[in-house]
């Protein structure tokens, strides 16, 4: 038997699977019905315990093709039911064996509906997955003393630059905790990609002679990576820039806006976003705990082009003078709807126009 102990003192009892070790982290919930493998391998969940709201997880197993990164960064998994005998022609191992091999504990038999309601009402908080023998008071004391990490991006970003060669536009991808799906979006469009660490300087990026710079998704609070903000501030006006998720927030901060923590974040594949420019709604895939403060944008060169239909938070920004734009969601959508994949084509169109204008100016 296992226990899930929340920071507010709530205790759930269930059955352990995956690794048997105890773990502490920030507990969040994810609302997708499918895509649990991509979710668990998304670096943006670094240090978090994921509650899956869909009642049965693991029913189609785990395969070699749907990973978003090689080494998962999440701390733990909470489900109502984990499937022990998956059935799918692509299945290669069970959810239990996957988690065991990677040292990630899980707990099942939990009323995830009740748990999600608690998180929605109280907000994200610290939690512990532990054995049923441990004293709850002792566990709560451990949580009080535990500080959530602030080095999430540094922990999941690449250490050294690397290249994925092609003959198309030269795109520098700044890795804040990048999903593989983002790389697929560019390689499918024949881009020559150079992936660089989160703390690279603007000068080093420009030495790569990029046609465009892409800022990836990533975990945690953008305020914890001020060097990234400074880099992007220096890039604006020198090269086209496109950012998603963490990249979106870094662009906002680089232009003088603020970011703030959401009560329980946006994590799921069914997040509706309204586009004010095209007067239409998109369904999007999202995973973030922070958002751009709308009021702080008024004094910047940014304008809001999209907003969330759930809570009116900022979902997309454009720069008034330079070829810079961003979205809070994941246009590559793995898992999720493919409504916004055209944003990569838009970025590359901007890149080509910028190259032509630069050629004329010189």
TrEMBL record:
Residues 1-130 form the Carbamoyl-phosphate synthase small subunit N-terminal domain. Pfam families: CPSase_sm_chain, GATase. GO terms for biological process: 'de novo' pyrimidine nucleobase biosynthetic process; 'de novo' UMP biosynthetic process; glutamine metabolic process; L-arginine biosynthetic process. Gene3D superfamilies: 3.40.50.880, Carbamoyl-phosphate synthase small subunit, N-terminal domain. It comes from the Bacteria. PROSITE patterns: GATASE_TYPE_1. It catalyses: hydrogencarbonate + L-glutamine + 2 ATP + H2O = carbamoyl phosphate + L-glutamate + 2 ADP + phosphate + 2 H(+); L-glutamine + H2O = L-glutamate + NH4(+). Its EC number is 6.3.5.5. GO terms for molecular function: ATP binding; carbamoyl-phosphate synthase (glutamine-hydrolyzing) activity; glutaminase activity. L-glutamine binds at residues 44, 218, 220, 246, 249, 287, 289-290. Keywords: Amino-acid biosynthesis, Arginine biosynthesis, ATP-binding, Glutamine amidotransferase, Ligase, Nucleotide-binding, Pyrimidine biosynthesis. Residues 1-170 are annotated as: CPSase. The active site is at residues 245, 330, 332. The keyword Nucleotide-binding applies. Pathway: Amino-acid biosynthesis; L-arginine biosynthesis; carbamoyl phosphate from bicarbonate: step 1/1; Pyrimidine metabolism; UMP biosynthesis via de novo pathway; (S)-dihydroorotate from bicarbonate: step 1/3. Small subunit of the glutamine-dependent carbamoyl phosphate synthetase (CPSase). CPSase catalyzes the formation of carbamoyl phosphate from the ammonia moiety of glutamine, carbonate, and phosphate donated by ATP, constituting the first step of 2 biosynthetic pathways, one leading to arginine and/or urea and the other to pyrimidine nucleotides. The small subunit (glutamine amidotransferase) binds and cleaves glutamine to supply the large subunit with the substrate ammonia. NCBIfam families: CPSaseIIsmall, PRK12838.1. HAMAP family: CPSase_S_chain. Composed of two chains; the small (or glutamine) chain promotes the hydrolysis of glutamine to ammonia, which is used by the large (or ammonia) chain to synthesize carbamoyl phosphate. Tetramer of heterodimers (alpha,beta)4. Belongs to the CarA family. This is Carbamoyl phosphate synthase small chain. It comes from Salimicrobium jeotgali. The lineage of its organism: Bacteria, Bacillati, Bacillota, Bacilli, Bacillales. The gene is carA.
